[in-house]
Amino acid sequence: MTGDLDLIKGQLQERIGELCQRLLPHGKEESGLWVSHNPLGDDARKNPAFKVRMRGGVVGAWRDWRNGHKGDVLNLIAYCERTDTKGGLTWARDFLGLQAMSRADREAMRRVEREKAERRAVDDEKRRANKLIAADRLFSCRGPQSRDIGPCAVPEGTLSLDLARPLSLDMHAMAYFAARAVPLPDVVGLNARTFRLSPATEWWKGATWENDGGRRWKAQAGPFYPAIHSAMRNAMGIVTCCHITFLDPARPAKAPVTPAKLMFGEALGAVIEISTGPSLVPYWMADREGLAPAPLVIAEGIETALSFAVAIPEARVWAGGSLAGVGAAPIGLDCVDWVLFARDNNAGNAQAQKQFSAALEKLEASGKRIVVEASHVGDDFNDLAQGDE
User: Which of 63, 201, 256, 348 could form a disulfide with 70 if both were Cys (CB 3.0 to 4.6 A apart)?
Assistant: First the structure.
């Protein structure tokens, strides 16, 4: 019977950690997600892209970011066990021990579950608020930090980017961008407040975690690298996410880790402002200043966006951080006239093509003119700027 569907879903969400251990035993928890390789696919040699929400948002919601499959906690069981919805419900009842329960026991459990659901909603809102605060602190932290900020340690804090300052950290960051054929001094209207530099930020994907008595703790920190912290701001200019590019300590290149770029916070609805254009006024203040609308260039990555900031000085330029981020960008502001979407090629990547179509549809829903351009060389326009063939 399906009259206990709400009870089953609630109990599965309550025991999501145990459920993930059972269905995806080779995965691990990372920043509120259970991250694993696809249990049915042949992707063991690739970065794990099968992710299940453990806290915050809809617990048990899952998605394979490589093939696009997704669903709720019940679909998760059906998918991993290679069965249908009916089979998934049977498996779930057995897992939860509901088969042998009396009706009275189920009703008592349902009442308890409703109370827990209400507490989860309150806890989720607190957790979200704390995550937003941590994301802002991760970007703007100044001076020595004795405790982790969000997911990682930044022991020396961060400092502002200064193109005229001869500090080795400024020079290293500028050399990195110059090696990508986007020298920062050539960007008209560069919003230097977008970037902060860290001599040592923990690459938290490399941390080792252990569980003891229900408490999860970091047994060993991940490796530390110099890093560029970039602010992702919403329509009001509030930092809701910190984008971090980890740098090689000796060469003007990304750090030797995969992925070398990570984000922490709430990225959707926020963008990295690369350039204000000749107005020199950030987008969240442009309407207040009564500025005339200007063209906007938006791309996924920072380097691609910088390539356009160099080439089209009269435009505002943003980076969305991802295709989903581009689609959720706040382009409805009055300061945006029309939009050039500088897309990556992603040749042969069917899932990326679907994500591009979804992002484009959201941009077009704004009612503004959207023009799409893709580089004829390499994967993106930064490859073109570097002369990659």
Answer: 63
Measured between alpha carbons, how far is 16 from 345 in angstroms, rounded to an integer? 37
Q: What is the largest CA-CA distance in the chain?
A: 74
Tokens found for residue 126: 């607190």
Domain annotation covers residue 245: yes
- Pick the closest to residue 96 from 15, 211, 161 (CA basis): 15
pLDDT tops 90 at residue 7? no
At 175, list the tokens: 């050399």
Instruction: List CB contacts of 295: < 8 A, sequence separation 6 or more.
Output: 312, 314, 315, 316, 337, 338, 339, 340
- Please give the single-letter amino acid code of residue 223: P
Residues in the chain, overall count: 389
Domain tally for the chain?
Answer: 3
One domain, residues 280 and 254: no
Rounded Cα–Cα distance for residues 198 and 200 (Å): 5
User: Looking at the domain assignment, is residue 53 inside a domain?
Assistant: yes
- Picking from 266, 288, 321, the residue at the C-terminal end of a domain is 266
**Structure tokens belonging to residue 220:** 């060993």
Are 227 and 245 in contact by the 8 Å Cβ rule? The answer is yes
What's the CA gap between 105 and 90, in Å, rounded?
18
For the question of whether the overall pTM of this predicted structure is more than 0.85, the answer is no
One domain, residues 223 and 289: no
Is the residue at 136 inside a domain? no
Please give the order of strands across the beta sheet that includes 195-202: 159-160, 195-202, 224-233, 239-246, 261-265
Quick one: which H or E segment has residue 266?
none
**Contact by Cβ (8 Å): 44, 59:** no
Domain span at residue 97?
5-101
Residue 72, domain CATH: 3.90.580.10
CATH code, domain with 302 = 3.40.1360
CB atoms within 10 A of CB 85: 12
Instruction: Tell me the per-residue pLDDT of 282-307, one tens digit each, with 9 for 90 and over.
Output: 999 998 888 899 999 999 999 999 99
Whether 289 is covered by a domain: the verdict is: yes
Angstrom CA distances, 298 to 33, 50, 326, stand at 28, 28, 7
DSSP alpha helix (H) spans, the chain: 5-14, 16-23, 73-80, 85-96, 103-140, 168-179, 283-289, 302-311, 323-327, 350-364, 381-386
Q: Choose one of 79, 101, 123: the last residue of a domain.
A: 101
